[in-house]
Design a protein that fits this description.
41% of the residues lie in helices and 21% in strands. With 494 residues, the protein is of the alpha/beta class. It has 3 domains: 97 residues, Double Stranded RNA Binding Domain, CATH 3.30.160; 57 residues; 277 residues, tm_1862 like domain (pyruvate-formate lyase- activating enzyme, Alpha-Beta Horseshoe). Strand 6, helix 8 and strand 7 form a beta-alpha-beta unit. The longest helix has 22 residues. The radius of gyration is 23 Å and the shape is globular. 44% of the residues are buried.
Length: 494
């Protein structure tokens, strides 16, 4: 699509606003224009008492226009006022053009609690926060209430977090097969799976390196998360070697949370569950995504519904304390009726956590390359499915406790984690809200260092692909530079 901006406003911000109505769009300056190419023009005028903005959306002969004026306010920065004015103009133009109102209004970005948490810190009570979300950001009442509830729940957990706390993420970016919608750096070909032994040797050395930095800076490791990919793709010997290294370097009994992804039921056995339990893991994710065999085949999952039930029973009988299950609303081939049956069946199992994702596809996913129509701005059954899950989970005693959103999600909807009281996943909150240092090792992993005094976040990226991670050049660079970057950041905080 073609985006024209007149005035001082973040182009990235306006692009994200456009994606509310044109999910999956590209913003290349060199795109070949046709009569059907969407054109969005945004004008920004900073005046003495506020910001005026206008927006025009045009596709062929169809046009939608709107404008907005936002007065300066003492509690809001000028940048935020500009964003609100532009957001209102684009949102209203899109509403006129398409004839429907997005549930999340103009609230964009992966962390929707950011605005609500700022309002809470400024002294607003829940009722006032809900009102601002509805009136200033155009959230519908359900989303405003959901976001406020999650923000209040997170605040209680954040208050218990020590200033010297940190987490460790260990990446195992391998899966038995690749799902058609996959957005993670996970690998499933025979050649790439053959890298696992060398990958594990390197990973264990990096765990040593990072733990020495954590120890020397007197940080308190509170949560440990082994993710991917599917860590249970590893052999029993490889899992054991990983856990032996963890126990060599970490007092696991002092952790508040020790989690592992076992998302693919076809990788779970009684033997690897016994290893996981014996080494102190207290939280595991087993993710059916749907309890419909036809939909599972459609999305490239090689397990069946019965495989999930078998894996879940084994995990519950293993004695691992907490079990999470992930579901996805709006999957290709699924329907509101099918998804509601899945939710009801999962609730009968009474897992400790249930995460409801909305179908989202990144540009590199196989389903996009296959030419499927995956970017849908109107939610359809997905919205009904999400609404149903939220109602049913609440009725069964589950509370929403963390949330994040993604680009190109069906209906511009959300992903929400629910937990029975006292069984919330701490790492989920820490990683999404960027509340403390999260050290990370392995391909595709990202270390995040947080300075609340600025506020400032420093990200240190590991190579995306395992073969890059295994290169001698990167190992040398990592050993020499990683510690220096961390030490410089922590020193600047003091």
């Amino acid at each position: 699509m073609k985006l024209i901006i007149n005035g001082d406003i973040s182009r990235y911000y306006v692009q994200n606003l456009c994606l509310i109505y044109f999910p999956g769009s590209k913003f290349s300056e060199h795109e070949v224009m046709t009569e059907e190419t969407p054109i969005v023009e945004v004008n920004v005028d900073e005046r003495e008492d506020g910001v005026y903005s206008s927006a025009v959306i045009k596709v062929g002969e169809l046009v939608g226009t709107s404008d907005a004026f936002e007065k300066y306010a003492k509690d809001f920065t000028r940048e935020r006022i500009k964003n609100i004015a532009v957001g209102k103009a684009v949102f209203s133009a899109g509403e006129k053009f398409f004839g429907y109102t997005p549930a999340w209004g103009i609230l964009i970005g992966i962390r929707p609690t950011k605005i609500a948490r700022q309002l809470l810190g400024d002294g607003y009570d829940p009722a006032q926060i809900r009102k601002i979300l509805r009136n200033e950001y155009f959230l519908n009442p359900k989303k405003a209430s959901l976001l406020t509830s999650i923000t209040m729940s997170e605040a209680k957990i954040i208050d218990q977090m020590g200033k010297d706390s940190c987490s460790l993420y260990i990446s195992i970016p391998f899966c038995p097969t690749r799902c058609v919608y996959c957005s993670f750096v996970s690998f499933a070909t025979k050649r790439l799976l053959s890298m696992i032994p060398e990958y594990m040797e390197r990973l264990l050395r990096d765990i040593d390196h990072v733990m020495s930095i954590i120890e020397q800076n007197h940080l308190n490791l509170t949560t440990l998360y082994i993710g991917g990919g599917t860590p249970t793709t590893l052999s029993n010997d490889q899992l054991t070697a990983l856990f032996e290294k963890i126990h060599e370097r970490i007092n696991v009994s002092s952790l508040r949370e020790f989690s592992i992804e076992a998302g693919r039921p076809d990788t779970i056995t009684e033997e690897n569950l016994k290893i996981i339990k014996n080494y102190g893991v207290n939280r595991i994710s087993i993710n059916p995504q749907t309890l419909n065999d036809a939909v599972l085949r459609c999305i490239g999952r090689c397990h069946t519904v019965q495989d999930f039930y078998k894996a879940y029973d084994m995990a519950r009988n293993s004695g691992i304390k907490y079990i999470n299950t992930d579901l996805i609303a709006g999957l290709p081939g699924d329907s509101y009726r099918g998804f509601s049956k899945t939710v009801d069946a999962i609730l009968k199992l009474a897992p400790d956590n249930v995460t409801i994702h909305t179908f989202s596809v990144k540009k590199g996913a196989d389903i996009v390359h296959a030419g499927s129509e995956v970017y849908r701005p109107n939610a359809g059954d997905a919205q009904k499915s999400v609404d149903y899950s939220q109602l049913r989970l609440r009725n069964f005693g589950y509370n929403p406790y963390y949330i994040y959103r993604q680009r190109n999600t069906v209906g511009n909807l959300e992903n929400v984690g629910y937990a029975l009281p006292g069984r919330e996943g701490l790492y989920n909150i820490y990683i999404m809200e960027e509340l403390h240092h999260i050290f990370a090792v392995g391909a595709g992993a990202v270390t995040k260092l947080v300075d609340f005094n600025k506020p400032k976040i420093e990200r240190i990226f590991m190579p995306k692909y395992p073969y890059e991670y295994l290169s001698e050049k990167f190992e040398k660079d990592f050993t020499e530079n990683y510690r220096g970057k961390v030490e410089a950041f922590l020193s600047a905080m003091k």
